[in-house]
What does this fold into?
Amino acid sequence: MSSCDDTADGELVSLDNTDLTDEFLGVSSMLLELESMGFSEIERQGSSTGAITGRKAGECVDFSVNMDESGRIFYTYDFGEGCEIDSQTLSGRVVTSFFIDRERNFEETISYENFSWHEGSIDGEETITGRYVFEFGEDMLDFDIDYSHDRQISVTGCDGTTYGITSNSSVRITRSNKTVSVLDQTIETANSTYVTSVEAPLVQDFTCNQKEINIYTTGVLKTVSGEEELIIDYGEGTCDNLISVTENGNTVESEASELVQYDFCD
It folds into this structure.
């Protein structure tokens, strides 16, 4: 990562020039990238990136769709022993199932079966449950999606380190923004435990996407590991791509893109 330039608001610091915990930043970056891949029908509603299905998939993915007797639809993405997408080699399988009733209540599961990318691998399952609300406006469709997202997965990094990740979050997506009001997440390794929570609701303003800013623009996230404390403040709603990072009482200002693009396998 490259260092940032000074601004009138103060000195910007590259995150790799601080004492931030590499393991936590790496895994957090990986989870953000995993969501952007678009395996989840619900998460795609709040993402401006293309799903790995469709235009990014290419011909190397064995993709199939099936429905059981209850009406639940199963999407299977089989990358085999190696499938190159956007200069990445993916392998293994991801199976997504989706069901919605007449009251627009839905449940979605995402199962990872030795799915690998970035020379690491992931196994486990995510469950997303909630409800859709649609309203037809004058010129376009408005929607409101409230859901909870439970995640129990195991990630093995390219260096062989295994991370057990358990989390629960409450999320709302509308046409204009995505809000994470609750997050209880625990990341465990053989030597460390990281507990993360939302101290102030995280809001992603979709109008900022036009400026290529695809991260939260407001909210506070806190992570505790033993006696260490890390706080990330995304600001007050401005599409400026800046965050304040406080580690054990020491605060620096940095580009949010450095957090998102942190190299999990570096």
